[in-house]
Design brief:
- There is one protein chain.
- This protein is an all-alpha fold.
- Among the domains are: about 110 residues, no CATH class; about 30 residues, no CATH class.
- The chain contains 12 helices and 2 strands.
- A two-stranded antiparallel ribbon has the order 1-2.
- Strand 1 and strand 2 form a beta hairpin.
- The chain is flat.
- About 10% of the residues are buried.
- InterPro entries: MAVS.
Length: about 240
């Protein structure tokens, strides 16, 4: 027993023997004090902020999305918009012409979704050799009878381009203009065009009439007059049209 008068009271404290090894083991086992700043901050964060449950996470307000979602139909619509109405109309005309020939010559329309490249090449060989415009009185009046019985060279190329566009539009992975698998059919078309030219069946391309000099002077006076952004734009257009078109 010992007296501690410095406490200001007549208090008696009993001093006991302490097992210091046991005390150190208890402290080491119960308290793992981190000396890392990051770990200490993480521990403080866990204490101050309650753990979010699944329910509270679902109740969090949704944020506004930056990018909009589009459907497959909208994506397909964007693909179709890459072609003008005139181009789509030309594609439809060329396809209908080929299918009319296919029914008459082969007994059935051609299935472009399943036909193989070699088989289509064989069909195109005959088509290019046999294709002809429908008899038309107005057509016969504007040209000779022999010329009226044949398509113009540019029309043949337009038909081939129309078929090629249709093939691409339905997702087939071949090109009837450039692929080697269609070399033979393209050779037939080239030979057909040259034969028509040699036989005089290919009509010459009809160009627009030449602009009269007085009209050309009026145009030049405007585009080469006072320099403005608009007149400069028309000046470039005029020079390109005269020199290269």
């Amino acid at each position: 027993m010992a007296d501690f008068e410095m406490l200001g009271v007549g208090q008696t404290i009993e001093i006991i023997d302490i097992d210091w090894d046991t005390l150190h083991q208890l402290l080491d086992g119960e308290f793992d004090v981190s000396t890392s700043t990051n770990e200490a901050e993480e521990e403080l964060e866990r204490v101050l902020n309650p753990i979010k449950t699944e329910e509270t996470m679902l109740q969090e307000p949704s944020y506004s999305k930056r990018f909009k979602s589009v459907s497959d139909a909208e994506i397909q619509d964007l693909k179709e918009r890459r072609q003008s109405k005139a181009t789509k109309s030309n594609t439809k005309w060329g396809l209908n012409l080929f299918q009319e020939w296919s029914v008459e010559a082969l007994g059935q329309p051609t299935n472009f979704h399943s036909i193989s490249a070699p088989e289509l090449n064989s069909h195109l060989e005959k088509f290019y050799a046999e294709a002809a415009p429908r008899p038309n009185e107005k057509r016969s009046q504007s040209m000779t009878k022999q010329q009226a019985s044949e398509y113009h060279n540019n029309t043949f190329k337009s038909i081939r381009s129309a078929l090629n566009r249709h093939i691409h539009d339905i997702g087939r992975q071949f090109d009837i203009v450039r692929d080697r698998e269609f070399r033979e059919s393209n050779n037939v078309l080239d030979g057909k065009l040259k034969k028509n030219l040699q036989d005089g069946l290919s009509r010459p391309i009809k160009h627009k009439e030449i602009i009269p000099k007085q009209d050309l002077d009026k145009i030049s006076a405007f585009v080469f007059g006072e320099p403005t952004p608009i007149s400069l734009r028309f000046r470039i257009w005029l020079l390109i049209a005269i020199q290269f078109i």
